[in-house]
Amino acid sequence: MRVPALRTGWQRQTFVHWPFPARTVQDLLPPELVVDEYEGAAWVSLTPFVMADVRPPGVPSVLPGLPTFAETNLRTYARHRDSGRDGLWFLGIEVAFPLMLAARAVGVPYHQGTLRVSMDGDVVSYTGSRWGGDVAYRLVVRPGDPIRPTARDVWLTSRWRAYSRRYGMLWQTPVEHEPWPLRAASLEVAEETLTRAAGLPAPAGEPVVHFSDGVRHVRLGPSRPCR
Fold first, then answer.
1. Can you state the percent helix, strand and coil of the chain, rounding each to 5?
2. DSSP 201
3. 10 close to 123: Cβ distance less than 8 angstroms
4. Does the pTM of the predicted model rise above 0.85?
5. In whole angstroms, what is the distance from residue 94 CA to residue 212 CA?
6. Is residue 200 within 8 Å of residue 6, measured between CB atoms?
7. Cβ distance 8 to 54 under 8 Å?
8. Residues 6 or more apart from 90 whose CB is under 8 A from it?
9. What is the 3-class SS of 160-182, one letter each residue?
10. CB within 8 A of 39, min separation 6: which ones?
């Protein structure tokens, strides 16, 4: 990425991953994308975090007053039908910062909400509710020890582009950052209606859960149509 459109950091991020039948998830994707499967299943991940020190390129992160706010993504994993390039497809994004809604211009499904991330000892709590509806979540997570990521851990957490669709076109947004420092985590409370709002059935079975203290050097590139 020669020149990013935005720089930021992602902090206190939890990943909650559920397997779903591939056909169920495929029905939610645009025709240009196919489900990316792992171990015979599609995966949907709920990822709350803090987006820190959001700034344009050339602005130092130490500048006071840079926006820092909570965000929560519901995402799945897909590949471009023609090129085979993998990436994220967002089923919904909750955000507590109105200016991020500008990304709706290229089809990114941002929703304004009231979100909060808090810590009590070694427990991290995430809450959020979408404005104008009954979409909400509450997660309480207890991070554990650092882990050496397996192939599945890397597959579930590391993607370097996001897809969106608007104006009859598929768009891609590139992402760069250092590798995630992952920790084991246990999910003590999990209440959410985001999956239902996205058109999915309720998740079944125990999720795979990761926690990361975060990555500091995130570079988001300009969105452009896929060719």
1. 10, 55, 35
2. P
3. no
4. yes
5. 19
6. no
7. yes
8. 73, 74, 75, 108, 109, 162, 164
9. CEEEEEECCEEEEEEEECCCCCE
10. 19, 152
| pLDDT tens for the 227 residues of the chain, in order | 788 999 999 999 999 999 999 999 999 999 999 999 999 999 999 999 999 999 988 888 877 788 999 999 999 999 999 999 999 999 999 999 988 998 999 999 999 999 999 999 999 999 999 998 889 999 999 999 999 999 999 999 999 999 999 999 999 999 999 999 999 999 999 999 999 999 999 998 889 999 999 999 999 999 999 97
User: What CATH class has 6-225?
Assistant: mainly beta
- Measured CA to CA, the distance from residue 212 to residue 227 in angstroms comes to 34
Indicate the domain borders of the chain.
6-225
Number of H helices, E strands in the chain: 3, 13
Six-digit token string for 167:
């104006």
CA distance 187 to 62: 33
Distance CA(18)–CA(110), nearest Å, equals 22
The residue written with tokens 């995402």 in the block is: 75
Assign residue 32 a region: left if phi > 0, alpha if psi is -120 to 50, beta otherwise?
A: alpha
**Strand (E) or helix (H) holding 226:** none
End-to-end CA distance of the chain: 18
